[in-house]
Amino acid sequence: MNEIWTEKYRPKTLEEVVGQKHVTERLKAYVAAKNMSHLLFTGPAGTGKTTCALAMAKEMFGDEWKGSFIELNASDERGIDVVRGKIKEFARTAPLGNADFKIIFMDEADALTSDAQAALRRTMEKYSRICRFILSCNYASRIIDPIQSRCAVFRFTPLSKEDIAEYLGKIIKNENVDIEPDALEGLIHVARGDLRRAVNSLQVAASMGKTITLDTVYQTTGMANPEEVKKMLETALSGDFVQAREKLDNIMIMYGLSGQDIIRQIHATFFELSITDSEKVRLMDKTGEIEFRIVEGSNERIQLEALLAYLVMIGGNKR
Q1: DSSP-based three-state secondary structure for 140
Q2: Helix, strand, or coil here: 132?
Q3: Do residue 25 and residue 150 come from a single domain?
Q4: Domain of 189: which CATH number?
Q5: Integer Cα distance of 179 and 217 in angstroms
Q6: Which pLDDT tens digit goes with each residue over 23-32?
Q7: Which of 15, 162, 194, 244 is most buried (CB neighbours < 10 A)?
Q8: What is the DSSP string of 255-268?
Q9: DSSP H helical segments within 86-160, as ranges?
Q10: Distance of CA 72 to the CA centre of its chain
Q11: In sequence order, which residues have a C-beta less than 8 Å from that of residue 20 and are 6 or more positions away?
């Protein structure tokens, strides 16, 4: 297990990219035409933005793709000096071999400062004949409008459970991983549409050197078992505050979770509780308030116990 599985099993062609057919079909048209505009890839992490950029460059330029493609991470190189220096120098040089243009791929472009983005838009326009840009970001709203208007926008969506299950199944078979069926379901639940997280979680769990169980998955991914969180909330609704508090202690200690981690899982579990819609609305409002307090630095234990106390009061009104 010397390799990182996310790199070992990264798709090499656009055809192999998982679950983004609405994107890859349009990119294949660029490859066939051997031409492209500036592109903006936007969407959640782990949905294939970097993979699509690499695969398209390899198919478009062939064996010489490394000489006509450069990858930069804008979160590391985010200032105006980088745009005026490193990026401009690469953009203004002629492409190698038979390529008509080069590609600059800027990952996490939403981390660029506003000044850097303003400088970038002129570079994109001035050297567009011999250089094309692919900008990748999680939040398109953080990219200034002049850059967005210069790009064809591709929106990546979270992967479906079926796509993640199929991809993990291929890795499990190739790596001879022994995993229980409910543990695979747990990995898919943990991923929440992020394939990179799913593959990394699988590798970490497999490194334990034994059959992967559901408990192993949750202990190695920094998430509590949703059933345990649900039981804690149901205990509070039944009026047993002391027992609910003990379950909260066990969850925090066993899984090593922070208050923010637990509040996110509590939020996701509300819809599974047998309470009325109006009570769910009140709980959502209270949870948002408590999450804000935790983020602002309030004592997370006191705030979580306050939420359990609120659940006890809601349960008391039903009895």
Answers
A1: helix
A2: strand
A3: yes
A4: 1.10.8.60
A5: 10
A6: 999 999 999 9
A7: 244
A8: HT--HHHHHHHHHH
A9: 88-92, 114-126, 145-150
A10: 19
A11: 47, 48, 52, 156, 157
Please tell me whether residues 146 and 250 are part of one structural domain: no
8 Å CB contact between 157 and 47: yes
- Let me know: does 105 contact 7? Beta carbons within 8 Å: no
Question: Which DSSP helix (H) or strand (E) runs through 299?
Answer: none
Query: Residue 42 CB: number of other CB atoms within 10 A?
Result: 23
**pLDDT beyond 90 at 214:** no
Sheet strand arrangement including 151-155: 69-73, 102-107, 131-137, 38-42, 151-155
d(CA 42, CA 37): 16
pTM, to two decimals? 0.80
CB 50 within 8 A of CB 196: no
| pLDDT of residue 45 exceeding 80 | yes
**In whole angstroms, how far apart are CA 94 and each of 85, 204, 210?**
16, 44, 53
Calculate the alpha carbon distances from 151 to 66, 154, 179, 295 in Å.
Answer: 23, 9, 44, 36
Question: What is the number of domains present in the chain?
Answer: 3
Q: Give every CB contact of residue 100 below 8 A, 6+ residues apart in sequence.
A: 34, 35, 130
Q: Distance (Å, rounded) from C-alpha 28 to C-alpha 35?
A: 11
Tell me which residue of 86, 103, 83, 84 sits closest to 95, measured CA to CA: 103
